[in-house]
Predict the 3D structure of the following.
Amino acid sequence: MTTAASTLDSAQGADGNQPSERDTSAYCPADRQARLKQQVASILSAPVYDVAIETPLQPAQRLSAQLGNQVLLKREDLQPVYSFKIRGAYTRVARLSPSERARGVITASAGNHAQGLALAAQKLGVRALIVMPTTTPRLKVEGVCARGATALLHGASFPEALAHALQLADRHGYTFVPPFDDPDVIAGQGTVAVELLRQHQGALHAVFVPVGGGGLIAGVAAYIKYLRPEVKVIGVESKESACLQAALAANSRVVLPEVGGFADGVAVAQIGKLNFEFCRHYVDAVVTVGNDDICTAVRDIYNATRSITEPSGALAVAGLREYVRREGICDKTLIAINSGANIDFDRLGQVIERAGRENP
Ligand SMILES: Cc1ncc(COP(=O)(O)O)c(C=O)c1O
């Protein structure tokens, strides 16, 4: 595989002995293949359909004609919590032991994992406390409370909310359910790839995946590279939170000094640890896009589906556009994951304005 990520495979351990965070790529290919196989088995047994639906893969005709490629949208915005996040959260909670469930669950989330966890906990009869940054859109806070969980607003951004949630888990014994850095969460998110490869069995050039902490792309990349290694997996990040791109460039997870919150769902300063391991081996490239590109993609999706996505939810389409422009490809089949639709109504004006006029 000739991948941006795979050029990083030669990293060596600092002590040449115990694998550190920096050098786990030093695992031999056979070990890596075994780990991949294990993750794929976990994806295939993830119990997501207790709560999630199999979402449609929908052609975007106008965008396809504009770009000269067949564009298909994986409609994760149609999930019961209006994002794919229910898949990973439910898989994690369903796999907790009875004693872990009895202690109640806690997480930190910019909003969509929060709603996924709230619904998962409600379905499985587990108490849930969710720590969210104070900047979280109102709709997402309401979505958590409506599903019977307790929302606690703390900190201006995700890292502060996360630190507080970990502190509370430690102090009160709650079971922490990570938003992305966890094999079960990754397994749940990977079920998106199981569906899309089943729904589209013909030639497929690339799948575009939005990246925050890397839960979705880790699961999708693991499954696709195991089954269809010729299909490219392209990560798409906001320029304001491109933590995977920075980590790949540095060959180590870095903490971004600043993160913008326009695409609040992906406003993460550091790619997850396990997520980075999957990404560095199985992701072919990362594309970054600006906020205006994201808003244009919200419009593209509206034109194709008559549905509104949130900025993070439209990221993959924005990246797909950028990739086609950059690579000059045509007559290929490209899939973008429409990952979420939780946007406050009063933010729509801002999105429309930034998308610009369609036919100036
Ligand atoms: C709508 C949406 N898209 C994409 C992502 C990115 O997912 P991940 O953190 O698994 O990379 C998120 C994360 O919350 C999200 O809410």
